[in-house]
Amino acid sequence: LKRSHIGSLAIFNGPRSRDDMANRGPVVPPFVKASAHDVVILTPESSQGRQVGVIFVGGAQIENTRYMQMLQSIQSAGAAVGLSVFAGAPWFIGDFANPVELAPRLIDVRTKLQGAGMPQEAPVFYAAHSVGGIFLQDYVNSSGGQAAGQMLLGTYLLRKYITPSVQYKVPTLTVGAELDGLARITRMAESFYHQRGHEDEFPVVILQGQNHMQFASGAPPANVRRKDLPADVSEDVAHRATASACADFMAARLGVGDAAVGQRIQQRLNATTALVAPIIEAYELEGSRRFNMPDQIGGDRQESCVRGLCTGRSRWALEAQRVISEEPLKAAGKRLEVTNSYVRLAGSPLTGQDLHLPTLKVEGETVSITTYSQCYWNDAMHEVFDDLDTAFTFTSAQEIGTKLESRQCTLNVGLGKNVSIDVDTDFCAQTNQMAYDWALSKVPVESRARFLKNGIPLVMGPSKHRPGGPNWLWNRLNFSMNNKSQMVVTSMDQVTEQDYWNKHFHFPRPASIPPLGCYHYCKLLSPARALEWIMVDGLRKPSLEEATIMLV
Measured between alpha carbons, how far is 92 from 39 in angstroms, rounded to an integer? Predict the structure, then answer.
């Protein structure tokens, strides 16, 4: 047996037995470099307080020794609330936690902690960082009563455990980082959204100014280096904040500590609530499949849609129609009512669905307009990432494709005027600018200042006309970098005049074909995508190609 003791730290290498581990060796200088097959064991400096264990699974390609400082911080924070913390971290082949190795490695660490003095009856909390938490949570959930709790750092409970309702067996603290470029804040806000009402057992806190790598120590591996965001706080500050949250969670679960524990827990929840409030508002305004509107094409409850018509809707699409129609109607003393439904925009009787087109009706002083939308999220590769719940890619919609009624017909049908299609200016770009302005006005003051100083701004280009339904439908809202200094957003529109059929066809319109005039179709920028850009992806400084791929 080779042992290195650093005060309360022991690194075990080579053949292992309980008798060997019980035999403590000499003290040597701290943080000896461990070899590839080392188990990290940290014993508490004092046996005073409730004795507990923490077993920590690291992130991909991050050595377990890179979590020593975090574990020591958890020990110190634990001691302050009356906990005597034994901590351990297993090693994995290639420093990558995986389901095959996970169970025997965790059992091995627990055995070694007991050999180092942790009582067999001591409660054990499991903790993990990044992808380590993805595999750990399945193990913990199936481990019966072996876990006193779980702490996920820079990772989260997967959607399968929190939607449509929370159905996880073990109390879990989720700790996110505001500037995490991998486990992005919008995905953490999604967990917060679905775990509301379960704060006692499943709290979600997001620590401001921290990034993904600050749950560990030292230089990040290549993938983290490429995707993570610059932190606003030091590693030491991040470790102490994270450790305090973990120690308070353990103390609360075990019923130890004073009233200050509960006060700090509530303060973190209050701060997180304020931080994610605009994120939740933006996603609800979009009508997000991951938040409030799973009943849509591409959502978890897509099967509820009947002949292409879904019960979900986008409130932002209503804003687009108001941009087109509200001002002239209001000036004429009329009232505008707008409804929206998610549909399959390409649906038709030929595909076994209905053809959904916008309509306008006048009843007294009220003009009612019906609109239809469908979200599109990411390309095929990034949809795989999102379906796997990696948080590597956007969770907001790339576009909200929306069929709207034209201003020409708002005036001619709604107000009895006789104007040309020229009154339909670039309402798509105008609405998209509103989405960006809305997001800038809603994000926290610090987030807005950070973005305006370091971020890549969105600029709305003129919309491109795409005549013909399929041509408009399959041309996406476009994002392209402009000299690495701006991201230009270009909508696709389709605008048809009121007498479209007569102008383009020289025979009467068959009754089986719906009217093809009065439309103003837009590819809308979601306010959630704008906000996600401001708080996450727009803070990176990638190459032109990387940025375009990243966004689109």
Answer: 9
Expressed in angstroms, the distance from the first to the final Cα of the chain is 54
Helix, strand, coil % in the chain, rounded to nearest 5 = 40, 20, 40
13/16 Cα distance (integer angstroms):
8
- Round to whole Å and give the CA distance between 54 and 68: 12
Q: Are 542 and 533 in contact (CB under 8 A)?
A: no
| Residue 11 · residue 4 · CB < 8 Å | yes
Structure tokens at 298: 């591409």
**β-strand partners of 464:** 492
Q: What are phi and psi of 56, to 5 degrees?
A: -115, 130
Instruction: Annotate 146-168 with DSSP letters as a single string.
Output: S-SEEEEES----HHHHSSS---
Placement of tokens 């998610």 in the chain: 342
Task: Classify strands 172-177 and 149-153 as parallel, antiparallel or unpaired.
Answer: parallel
Distance, CA of 87 to CA of 56 (rounded, Å): 7
Tokens in use for 372?
């239809």
- Taking only the tens place, the pLDDT of each residue in 36-87 is 468 999 999 888 999 999 999 999 999 999 999 999 999 999 999 999 999 9
Residue segments in the chain with a per-residue pLDDT below the cut of 70: 1-37, 144-145, 542-552
| Distance between CA atoms of residues 320 and 469, nearest Å | 19
